[in-house]
Amino acid sequence: MKVEGSGFQDLYRLESLARKDPHRALKKACQEFEAIFLETLLRDLDRTVMRSGLFPETLETRLYRDFYYEELARELSGKGLGLAQILYRHLSRKLPQPGELKLSPPSTEKGGRRNG
Fold it and tell me: What is the residue range of 87's domain?
């Protein structure tokens, strides 16, 4: 699955999808997390590289490098490193299965009322 852009619109789309199909929304959120994790990892690894000084560190080179790592992370997460699948497998246990009714827990108070 291709990981798309980020931002508030994507969060609203994901929330809307979660209401319709929580399993698909969770899978997409796990893939987005994997992409963000990889991007952070790549940027942190880049900070450990010693620069020779042959090419000056300019705003343009930093921006280019940031865009490169963002796209590289999206490409790598699209191929699937396994982190998204592990997260999905673990978190999907808490979701109701398709067609399963979600019942509220029984009341603990006499008379069937709950404290709210």
Answer: 27-95
